[in-house]
């Protein structure tokens, strides 16, 4: 068990398996509150843990993560600014926690396992899976990103990371056009390793990893990850910072703010609509 107490994540250590569980189920594990900061801290801690081999990233509740907390309005109500330079610096600062989280994952020494306990949308779909070493998914999970619809760009190097695992054209279909991808499609395309039933999903992931630790040497598995990822490190870091720069420029342009404000208003109106049940 972890000795640290967090507000928006749960960290558990069972033998050689460390698990980070996104824990804002009331908000579909969106990136509000202290979720990003706490996840960075947990990734850093597990990276230096003397015993763990696997780091599992998963979610609490019915969603893995819905990405940005649009209802929180953090970026929608940002500004005003004296000039474009001031705006870009402010937006870059606002975006930095996501950049630092992805950088920490790129540098992570342990075998990174993403366990998709449910749908993943936006940053929840884009940031982690292209960098994961192993991916499990519940049968009903799916990925979808509305980046182009919101006037954004594929975030945090995701366009290159997904291209490395599923190919350029499929990555473009997913990240440029916003195609919704089911767990079954992701398995066929080689992104998801195994689809597991919803009942007992987390226990199934844990059992699989414990079996690997029984039959395989932990250090050998970590070295295999290192050898796999070492040639990709520089490209992934460059893609991360290129994407952050492009995203900040989009916010300076103003298009994402207008589109995010419209989306936030739509969600608010839906939440106030009376039920006919």
Automatic annotation (TrEMBL):
GO terms for cellular component: peroxisomal matrix. Pfam families: ECH_1 (PF00378). GO terms for biological process: fatty acid beta-oxidation. Gene3D superfamilies: 2-enoyl-CoA Hydratase, Chain A, domain 1 (3.90.226.10). InterPro entries: ClpP/crotonase-like_dom_sf, ECH/Chromodomain_protein, Enoyl-CoA_hydra/iso. This is Uncharacterized protein.
């Amino acid at each position: 068990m972890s000795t640290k107490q967090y507000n928006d994540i749960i960290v558990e250590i069972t033998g050689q398996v460390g698990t980070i569980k996104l824990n804002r189920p009331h908000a579909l594990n969106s990136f509000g509150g202290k979720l990003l900061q706490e996840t960075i801290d947990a990734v850093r801690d597990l990276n230096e843990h003397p015993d763990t081999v696997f780091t599992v990233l998963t979610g609490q509740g019915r969603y893995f993560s819905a990405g940005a907390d649009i209802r929180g309005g953090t970026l929608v109500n940002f500004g005003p600014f004296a000039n474009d330079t001031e705006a870009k610096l402010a937006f870059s600062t606002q975006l930095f926690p996501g950049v630092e989280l992805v950088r920490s994952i790129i540098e992570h020494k342990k075998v990174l396992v993403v366990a998709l306990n449910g749908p993943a949308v936006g940053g929840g779909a884009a940031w982690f899976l292209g960098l994961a070493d192993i991916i499990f998914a519940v049968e009903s999970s799916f990925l979808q990103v509305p980046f182009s619809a919101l006037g954004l760009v594929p975030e945090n190097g995701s366009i290159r990371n997904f291209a490395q695992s599923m190919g350029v054209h499929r990555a473009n279909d997913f990240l440029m056009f916003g195609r919704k991808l089911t767990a079954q499609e992701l398995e066929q395309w080689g992104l998801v390793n195994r689809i597991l039933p919803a009942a007992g999903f987390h226990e199934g992931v844990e059992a699989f990893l414990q079996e690997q630790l029984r039959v395989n040497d932990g250090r050998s598995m970590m070295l295999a990850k290192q050898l796999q990822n070492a040639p990709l490190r520089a490209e992934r870091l460059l893609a991360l910072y290129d994407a952050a720069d492009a995203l900040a420029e989009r916010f300076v342009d103003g298009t994402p703010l207008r589109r995010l404000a419209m989306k936030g208003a739509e969600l608010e109106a839906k939440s106030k609509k009376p039920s006919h049940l």
